[in-house]
Design brief:
- With 453 residues, this protein is α+β, with helices and mostly antiparallel strands.
- Among the domains are: 5-110, Alpha-Beta Plaits (2-Layer Sandwich); 303-359, no CATH class.
- It is built from 14 helices and 23 strands.
- The chain has a six-stranded antiparallel β-sheet. Strands 10-11-9-8-12 form a five-stranded mixed β-sheet, with helices on both faces.
Length: 453
């Protein structure tokens, strides 16, 4: 699978530094651009009469700005004067001239590494009023392209990573790697350990916790355009729009009688020739079988035969990868060719205890790096509304996050507070929280009364 690279675009600006960082951060959050633009770096000793600044950009090809960044971010007056003759910079190139990074999720605190302590007193469930001038995206229109992608994946059944990327390109969907991850979280597809192949998951009804007497299920796996009409004949079907619409709409099936399940399954099989299975409460099942963090690390794909002296290395420190001499220290690393190049070969986690290189999902490897740096990982639980909040900077490994997503069939919502950015997961039972946080060594606090109830 192609690696996403972090590079920097440079600009010159004359004006107030704080206003620049605040406005860029506002636009990034408003238009959900944080996946592409995570940081802003300002020239040391910047003065209003003129200074350089750089935005960190994460794409496959350095110098290639995503269409959404060009549409929503570049029109700001701060970007009128790009550094000429150099479309992209590496961190090593700008390191001597820039100061601390400004995290676009927390622009009131210029050092993201210190966010954790303030997060303990932060309230991720407090509603922050939004400006009436902000544009509200047409979520329904955006999600239609992702729905078409799911139908295509369902009909095709399986394929290569290259085929998946071409399908995304045809539907004008950016960052296929992130889309693949979302579809896996939602239980629609699976991928091979090396990421070279994918396959559509079988059509399944997954039970979720219900606060009423009715039973509720979400639909996962292969789907067709006719499936919705059949389901509506037997049950109440609610469409779930995900945050920002960057995923296929979810379907929640509500039954007043548990005996309705079998007729639904038979009707789908008869009308569409499509097998459908009742999987039960998959979120709780996952929580039961998922291993402790240490064991999960050992289960990650190991890459033997790596000779460190044959490569350049960069180590993840605080918020970015910095060049280092590999000294067998546990941590997250980027592997670069000795003769240079504009992208790293691999991003890997080195486990000194077993002298092994481990490969896995980006957020999972970053989570391991945080744990090994002994940075406290936290979560907040709203017992009344059954919501779990996790700092964006501490996003969980994919398998564990999938359990949270399948508890509701919804991808997390992004909640910006004055101090940080949080991921909010809905319909998460207390027992599920206890099991997962214990296995991941996450400290969680429970709010007995919501602040916005």
């Amino acid at each position: 699978m192609t690696n996403v690279q972090r590079w920097y675009a440079g600009f010159r600006y004359r004006g107030n530094v704080k206003q620049l960082v605040d406005k860029i951060s506002e636009k990034v959050l408003e238009h959900d651009l944080s996946e592409f633009v995570p940081l802003v770096r300002i020239e040391k000793g910047a003065k209003p009469k003129g200074f350089y600044f750089f935005i960190a950009v994460e794409t496959v090809q350095p110098g290639d700005l995503p269409e959404s960044v060009q549409s929503y971010l570049m029109p700001l007056p701060f970007f009128k004067s790009p550094i000429k003759g150099k479309p992209s910079f590496s961190y090593d190139e700008i390191k001597p001239m820039v100061g601390a990074a400004h995290d676009v999720h927390d622009y009131t605190n210029p050092i993201p590494y210190k966010i954790v302590e303030s997060d303990r007193n932060d309230d991720p469930f407090q509603i922050i009023p939004t400006s009436t001038e902000q544009k509200i995206p047409d979520i329904e229109a955006i999600s239609q392209r992702y729905q078409q992608l799911l139908y295509w994946l369902s009909a095709t059944g399986n394929g290569t990573w290259e085929l998946f990327k071409k399908a995304c390109q045809a539907l004008e969907i950016e960052t296929p790697g992130r889309i693949l991850r979302r579809l896996k979280l939602l239980g629609h597809i699976e991928s091979s350990v090396d990421g070279r192949r994918w396959s559509a998951a079988p059509t399944s009804l997954v039970q979720i916790e219900s606060q009423s007497e009715t039973e509720k299920f979400i639909l996962c796996g292969q789907q067709t355009g006719h499936l919705l009409s059949i389901l509506e004949q037997y049950a109440q079907v609610n469409v779930i729009h995900h945050s920002r619409g960057h995923a296929p709409d979810g379907l929640q099936i509500q039954l007043t009688d548990s005996t309705q399940i079998n007729p639904i399954i038979e009707q789908v099989k008869t009308s569409l020739g499509l097998s459908i299975q009742n999987r039960g409460n998959v979120a709780n099942q996952l929580a039961e079988i998922l291993p402790e963090l240490k064991e999960w690390t050992l289960r990650l794909r190991s890459l033997p035969g790596i000779v460190p002296s044959l490569y350049h290395w960069k180590r993840f420190e605080s918020d970015d990868f910095t060049e280092c001499v590999f000294s067998q220290q546990t941590g997250l690393y980027q592997m670069w060719d000795l003769d240079g190049g504009d992208r790293s070969r691999l991003t890997l986690f080195y486990d000194a205890a077993t002298n092994s290189w481990r490969q896995g999902d980006w957020y999972g490897l970053r989570f391991l790096a945080l744990q090994h740096r002994e940075q406290p990982c936290i979560a907040r639980y709203d017992r009344v509304k059954a919501r779990l909040a996790i700092p964006y900077s501490q996003r969980w490994p994919q398998l564990y996050e999938r359990a949270l997503v399948l508890a509701s069939g919804q991808l997390p919502n992004y909640q910006k507070t004055e101090q940080s950015l949080w991921l909010i997961y809905e319909n998460v039972g207390r027992e599920l929280v206890q099991q997962l946080t214990q296995k991941l060594q996450v400290t969680w606090e429970e709010d007995e009364v919501t602040t916005n109830a």
